[in-house]
Design goal:
heterodimer, B: mainly alpha, flat
């Protein structure tokens, strides 16, 4: 069956239901300032364990894109970006809200997010299959270097400090070695605890590092909530931009979609980078630059198109080569593995029915997201008024039940709590938890590649890697990513 | 960096192939840790990335107290079951977080517990009663 033949598979009750749940959950998560797409995907992950793999992935990916879009609601209504990806939207969006034109701001943001999301889904559909052919040429050295490259990218870009990012990634690699040795069955770092012999499951660690650490951060300012504004308007509620608005933003939509897709494909560069780059480019190309910052619909459109255009394209390196393009993609990599899927060419051959259905479903999710978003838009401000003291217990309870439901054992719950405290302390000290998670996920791939390279080379791993052309390219890319991070840090100083 | 030493020694007891990768990673950690320490001594390169949240010393008190309450709630799960343990945890958290909006708090927590019951107990069949948690 060709790729287009899987389009009809999206329209099952289970898949459509999964998309709808993912979209609504994503809008709520994104709409709550401080809660991120990572947290949402981590919390929803345990719910998907017993689901059909296609519906499960659709639910998680719908949540991802809807959370990025959902961040625009508090950005526009309350000048408080729900996610960092919507920070640029707040500049012009809130000015329109203050003028009583929040419907205009929301419909521009929604339309732009939908266009950006569709562009990213199309990019995923068109770029991923040919790129996956590259994975067929991968051997042990290439897989080892791929893991190192992925860690370097996330490690250098996820946190503001390259050394801290790399350290967190290396800690994740060490954690991945806990448990029975894959070849000999020898227990490693179990310290006599039977529970540790099966190693650390990544799901409780993800929930702890992203969700519990966020809840603990919110405790620092438990009464925090966002300011109230009057949201009454006499203007008719419109779902779509007017014809004049659509004409005005058409070039921005195209340019920002392209920027978002390109930024998304680059591993490590997330939706916030795409959003700011796009906003700056829109201002650079604008006839009247003075409008920016004063309620420009071009500014809103640029930011929202690009941040959603990043979502799908950040999954291109994930699905084809196993390199997550963002922290959320790193959690999705874990979700793929939990559901028995291995990134690479097989996703587009043996597992093509799942992969293409998920991509088409992702495209549909972006459209549903727009419809649901504009329907709920008027009421989203109510959600954003919940104080942290109310949200913290909810996040903690969902984290506990999520971790427990994984294997119905308390060890996972304690692992999750421990990871939460460690994640909180890491974030306080300026360490990003994303590289640690990636290290935990990529650890087994890296170790297998390292061992096989050792065996094949008789111990000369470095020489063996240097003798493989693709591995050598990855070595150069790794060196370049480290070097660029060093230069960027030096410039910042 | 200090933790690398005992972990390296433990790795020596592994079979040769099983210890190779952990040792390579531990060596990397040690080098990176030394780099971090060295940077912290350099003027103008403090090695600090902006940490999140409040940076004053008291900021840690509330979160760590909440973590302790959550741990106590989790420890109570095998004894009294998930729902009573979490309800108890929420009561303590209300006072700890100095909640002001009692009605909103109770309503949100109740909805969350009902949601968990519907999804995890009724749909997914996760055993959350005390006797079944204890039985694991």
């Amino acid at each position: 069956m060709d790729a287009l033949g899987y389009l009809g598979d999206v329209f099952t009750l289970a898949n459509l239901g999964a998309i709808l749940i993912g979209v609504v959950a994503g809008l709520v998560i994104g709409g709550l300032p401080g809660l991120t797409a990572n947290l949402g995907v981590a919390l929803l992950l345990p719910v998907t364990f017993s689901m059909d793999v296609t519906a499960a992935l659709l639910m998680l990916m719908s949540l991802y894109t809807a959370a990025i879009y959902g961040g625009s609601f508090p950005a526009i209504l309350l000048h408080t970006p729900g996610t960092s990806a919507s920070a640029a939207t707040a500049i012009d969006g809130f000015v329109l809200t203050q003028r009583g034109e929040f419907n205009k701001a929301l419909r521009i943001a929604t339309f732009s997010s939908v266009v950006g999301g569709i562009a990213s889904a199309l990019a995923l559909l068109l770029i991923a299959p040919p790129l996956s052919l590259l994975s067929l040429r991968f051997g042990p050295a290439e897989y080892f270097m791929l893991a190192v490259f992925g860690l370097t990218i996330i490690g250098t870009l996820a946190s503001g400090n390259m050394v801290k990012g790399l350290l967190a990634g290396a800690l994740g690699l060490v954690l991945s070695t806990v448990g029975l040795d894959q070849d000999t069955g020898f227990p490693r770092y179990d310290f006599g605890f039977l529970s540790l012999q099966s190693g650390f499951n990544f799901v409780p660690v993800v929930i702890g590092l992203f969700s519990v650490s966020q809840a603990l951060l919110m405790c620092e300012d438990a009464q925090a909530t966002v300011q109230r504004i009057e949201l009454s308007t006499k203007e008719r509620w419109r779902f779509l931009p007017t014809w004049a608005e659509a004409i005005a933003i058409r070039v921005t939509l195209l340019r920002s979609s392209l920027i978002g897709v390109v930024v998304g494909v680059l591993p490590g560069a997330g939706a916030d980078i795409g959003s700011w780059v796009s906003y700056n480019e829109a201002r650079r190309f604008a006839r009247d630059k003075s409008e920016f910052g004063k309620g420009s619909i071009l500014g809103i459109s640029a930011s929202e198109t690009a941040n959603n255009a990043v979502t799908g394209s950040s999954l291109v390196p994930l699905l084809t080569l196993g390199i997550p393009g963002s922290a959320t993609a790193a959690i999705l990599l874990g979700a793929l593995i939990v559901h028995g899927l291995v990134p690479g060419r097989s996703l587009f051959t043996e597992k093509a029915s799942i992969t293409y259905t998920v991509i088409y479903g992702f495209l549909l999710a972006n459209i549903i997201m727009g419809i649901v978003g504009m329907t709920l838009g008027r009421y989203m401000a109510l959600i954003t008024r919940l104080p942290n003291s109310v949200l913290v217990p909810v996040i903690l309870m969902l984290s506990v039940v999520g971790a427990y439901s994984l294997g119905n054992n308390m060890f996972d719950v304690y692992t999750m709590l421990g990871a939460g405290v460690i994640g909180y302390l890491m974030r306080k000290a300026g360490f990003s938890p994303a590289p640690l998670i990636l290290g935990l996920i990529l650890g087994p791939i890296a170790e297998t590649g390292y061992r096989q390279s050792m065996t094949l080379s008789g111990g000369d791993v470095v020489g063996f890697i240097m003798s493989q052309p693709i591995a050598l390219v990855l070595v150069v890319l790794t060196a370049l990513s480290v070097a660029s991070a060093v230069v960027l840090e030096a410039r910042r100083r | 960096m200090l933790a690398c030493v005992p972990l390296w020694l433990i790795s020596d007891t592994f079979p040769e192939l099983g210890g190779a990768f952990p040792k390579a990673v531990l060596a990397t950690i040690a080098i990176l840790a030394m780099l971090l320490v060295a940077r912290s001594f350099l003027s103008g390169a403090s090695g600090k990335a902006a940490g999140e949240g409040r940076q004053d010393g008291h900021a840690l008190l509330h979160p760590l107290a909440v973590a302790a309450v959550a741990t106590a709630g989790v420890a109570a799960m095998p004894v009294i079951g998930f729902f009573p343990a979490m309800a108890g945890m929420c009561v303590v958290l209300f006072f700890l977080l100095a909640g002001r909006t009692k009605v909103l708090y109770v309503a949100t927590v109740t909805i969350a517990l009902a949601f968990i019951y519907a999804v995890f107990v009724l749909v997914l069949g996760v055993p959350l009663e005390a006797s079944r948690i204890l039985g694991q």
